[in-house]
Amino acid sequence: MDTSLTNVDSVNAVIKIEVKKADYQPKVDEAIKSFRKKANIPGFRPGTVPTSMVKKMYGKSIMAEEINKLVGESLYSYIQENKINVLGEPLPNIEQQQPIDFAAETDYDFYFDIALAPEIKMSLTKKDKINYYKIAVDEEMVDKQIASYKANFGKYETVEEGAKATDLIKGDVVELENGQPKEDGIKVENAVLMASYMKNEEEQTKFVGVEKGAVIVFNPGKAYDGNETEIASFLHIDKDKVEAIAPEFQFTVNEITRYREADLDQELFDKVFGPNTVTTEPDFRARVKETISSQLAPDSDYKFLLDVRQLLEKKAGNLEFPDAFLKRWLLTSNTEKIG
Q1: Is 94 a domain residue?
Q2: What is the reported pTM?
Q3: What are the backbone dihedrals phi and psi of residue 286, each rounded to the nearest 5 degrees, phi first?
Q4: Is pLDDT of 307 > 80?
Q5: What are phi and psi of 229, to 5 degrees?
Q6: Residue 175 in 3-state DSSP?
Q7: Would 176 be classed as within a structural domain?
């Protein structure tokens, strides 16, 4: 079996594989023998089917499979052994490849198009320098990160003072009718709301400054701007019942909790960086600065890689690519995946 390469141009070539009968016949005979042992043909026990019958019924397909396998192995071995730098995968040559008649049992020629990677010639010297930009971390960035840590590691605490718009207020809700609890009306124990979440400023103001034990009369429909999902969730009812609710509800405050940010102390230091890793505020700020710097390092690396690529592209100059082949290869590959 002979394999040869013919250059079409600097980025395209054709590989020709000449397969002689002597190359494939032993493999075909062995494959037929193996198939005969397993063949399940009516009227014959396994292993007793005549070889001539196996050849007649399956010889052509067996030979095609063995030749294709032999050609594929030869093609990729030739590319690897000759260290040919190809793009994509070899494709059958449309112009030179003749129809293959495996029934002829003769010598066969196979032609494949390959795309050659363009030869890149460039020289780099000590004069070729690229700056690596390290992003500076200023005190404002450190302050913002510390503020984020304090917020993340804070906790809710019960307060006795007047509620703020951002406090969580827990209480009992009762539907009213003519200023009195409605008979068989809606009642919700330990309902929770946050005034700042309300859409209506007038209703929101009713809850700002209230203390435990306060009784507020408000309109949920107005407070949540008629949003059926939010109203149903707050009153623990189905959405289709929202339209029928009364315009006034009574809310009795049972508890007010407020989210308090973590203090800038050893407890916070330990939660962020581990026990006793840092013990002073200056050391904590320094570690925060290091953390931000490490998080920004990938951006610096990316910028550096872009600059390196730009320099190398400039050094390489205009490169020729086998556009027609690559388009055909991509189209073939996508068609096979879809199929």
Answers
A1: yes
A2: 0.56
A3: -65, -40
A4: yes
A5: -65, -45
A6: strand
A7: yes
Structure-token pair, residue 82 = 């000759």
CA distances from 94 to 16, 71, 87, 200, 303 (A): 13, 17, 18, 73, 44
Tokens of 337: 């995946």
Report the DSSP pairing between strands 86-92 and 155-158.
Answer: unpaired
Tokens of 275: 């026990």
Does residue 102 sit in the same domain as residue 165?
no
The one-letter amino acid code at 28 reads V
Domain count, the chain: 3
Q: What is the DSSP letter of 98?
A: P
**3 within 8 A of 22, measured Cβ to Cβ:** no
Domain that holds residue 300: 121-153+267-318
Which segments of the chain are extended strands (E)? 2-7, 12-19, 86-92, 108-116, 155-158, 168-177, 180-181, 187-194, 215-218, 249-260
**Average model confidence (pLDDT) for the chain?**
93
303 DSSP 8-state letter: H
- Which of 334, 331, 311 shows the shortest CA–CA distance to 323? 331
